[in-house]
Amino acid sequence: MKSKITLKELAKLLNVSVSTVSKALHDSPEISPKTAERVKELAKLHNYRPNPVAVNLKKSKTGTIGVVIPNISNSFFARVLSGMEAEAHKHEQQIITYISNESLEREKQICDMLTSGMVDGVLIAISEETQKKKQFDHLFALLDYDIPVVIYDRINLDLPADKIGVDDEKSFYDTASFFKAKGLQKIGLASAIHHVGIGQLRIKGYQKAMQGENMLPMATSTKADELKRKIKDLVIDQKIEALLCTDFESAILATRVAYEEGIKVPQDLKLIGYIGREVAEYLTPSLSYIEQHPKELGVAAIEVLNNRLQGKYESGQFEEKIITTTMVHLESTGF
User: Fold this and answer.
1) CA-CA distances (angstroms) from residue 89 to 13, 274, 298?
2) Where is the HTH cro/C1-type domain positioned along the sequence (predicted)?
């Protein structure tokens, strides 16, 4: 064929996902031999080849890593980047940082730039809009260019790439279980990220821990005013004893509601959330939090990428590393 066929076009012809085609071409054990044979036969028939830039990438290294951050105002990602910078420096590598601002379109533009051969590999936390719309063609384009990709933090996605994240589901299961073991019965949850993967995992962990309970007290919304109103309902009308917050915004709103309504924390309401210690320690009362060890996550992301670049992983097999979180009790839980 004169025109080069893409992974997306192969997937359409085979009536399978782009992920399946990519995994089959990389001999992933997740794909059945029958499907892998179909994919490879069609790829051969259409003279499929990875993009020519891939050849250059394999022959020469730039010493540069592209890092895509979804939200620079979130201190978590600043700390992740700090870990990445420190580990990259050990290997005499440079980092180029891009910010998607949770935008699918911006993320597409960034990935398009990164296919030019300017980086050896890409570390990316997928934007909220990308997850919501489930549009990943731009990520498969990187793989089509044979550029190694490591997805960090937001890893609840079916993409053929190495992944580094935290134990989101287990962390909230353990947190809810901890409060139950302390004798608390009315344990609620608040979330402004219930629509994205990590939020869904945290909610799932909470629900598992609370199995057997009727009508779990939950407040979820992406709109601050609405979420605040729902949290107020949990605290005032439903009189919950503890509130687990899945993210920074819900934790701050919960703290605000308690202050405005004169709720004594931790005597009448215990609060804990996913929030950075640099904020948690300066709230009044100081907010108990779940430490995600972002610097460790950043270091691990660079390590996995370098292992991939050095050929330490077999083609088609992908590393998934999970960082264990830690509950840190300050004034808001009273433990």
Assistant:
1) 44, 29, 12
2) 4-39
The count of residues in the chain is 335
Q: How far apart are CA 327 and CA 288, in angstroms?
A: 8
Domains of the chain listed by start with CATH number: 7-45 (no CATH), 53-163+294-322 (3.40.50.2300), 168-292 (3.40.50.2300)
> Do 308 and 148 meet the contact criterion of CB atoms below 8 Å apart?
yes
Tell how far CA 290 is from the center of its chain: 16
d(CA 273, CA 29): 38
Phi and psi at 191, nearest 5°, equal -150, 135
Beta strands at 121-124 and 149-152: parallel, antiparallel or unpaired: parallel
Full pLDDT tens readout for the chain, 335 residues:
345 687 778 888 999 887 788 778 877 777 898 998 899 999 888 888 765 555 454 555 889 999 999 998 888 999 999 999 999 999 999 999 999 999 999 999 999 999 888 899 999 999 999 998 989 989 988 888 889 999 999 987 788 899 999 999 999 999 999 999 999 999 999 999 999 889 999 999 999 999 978 789 999 999 999 999 999 999 999 999 999 999 999 999 999 999 999 999 999 999 999 998 889 999 999 999 999 999 999 999 999 999 999 999 988 889 999 999 999 999 999 98
What pTM value is reported for the model? 0.80
Task: Quickly list DSSP for 63-97.
Answer: SEEEEEES-TTSHHHHHHHHHHHHHHHHTT-EEEE
Q: What SS3 state is found at 283?
A: coil
